[in-house]
Amino acid sequence: MKPLHSHPTNSNVSSPFAEEPWRTIFCILTLDGLRAGEVLGLKWGDIDFDRSLLHIRRTAWYGKIQTAMNEASETVLPIPSSLLTALKNYRATWKPNGAGFLFVTRNGRPPSSNKVVEYHLWTILDALGIPRCGLHAFRHAHIHRYSLTPAQHPKLCSVNCDTPMLGLR
């Protein structure tokens, strides 16, 4: 059994293994439970540093920008303090691009989630001896970590779950 600190959804994993911007991508996925496309579609204007809020307004799919998945997906989430720190640190080293996206490729478009998985996530997982998974595993781990049910916090569950909680405890 692997120790907890080598689990792919623990924010400590990204620190020694992932370089920027991948480290920040994995931190957002881990700490706020967003869909991969929502993270890749983020712009600095979506982050309210003063109020610690993250606005989900669009997604990126294979480098193309789309509106949020559905009305429930277009939402505002709290930013945990550790993620706020990571975002501030990333912004200090971020290279500006015309559209203001947090994450872009050489051609100025958001990266494809499949490329992030294949070239960055799997490299880390392989180095740690952890079975490969996709970015959606971070979302499931986020939901599972908080073990929310709709009765405990219906708004947050509707934001963080594509389907009702089915025995994730």
Keywords:
169 residues; 3-stranded antiparallel beta sheet; globular; mainly alpha; two-stranded antiparallel ribbon; disordered N terminus; disordered C terminus
Please outline what is shown here:
Helices cover 41% and strands 9% of the residues. By secondary structure, it is mainly alpha-helical.
Q: Determine the structural class based on helices, strands and strand pairing.
A: mainly alpha
**Largest sheet: spatial strand order:** 1-2-5
Radius of gyration: 15 Å
Give the helix proportion (percent range): 40-55%
Looking at CATH, which topology would you report?
Answer: hpI Integrase, Chain A
User: Total number of helical segments?
Assistant: 7
Q: Which regions contain 5 or more consecutive residues with pLDDT less than 50?
A: 1-15, 149-169
Oligomer: single chain
CATH class call: Mainly Alpha
Number of strands: 5
Terminus-to-terminus distance: 20 Å
Order of H and E elements: HHHEEEEEHHHH
**Total number of distinct structural domains:** 1
Average pLDDT, rounded to a whole number, is 76
Shape: globular
CATH superfamily: Intergrase catalytic core
CATH architecture: Orthogonal Bundle
Strand content: 5-15%
- Main sheet summary: 3 strands, antiparallel
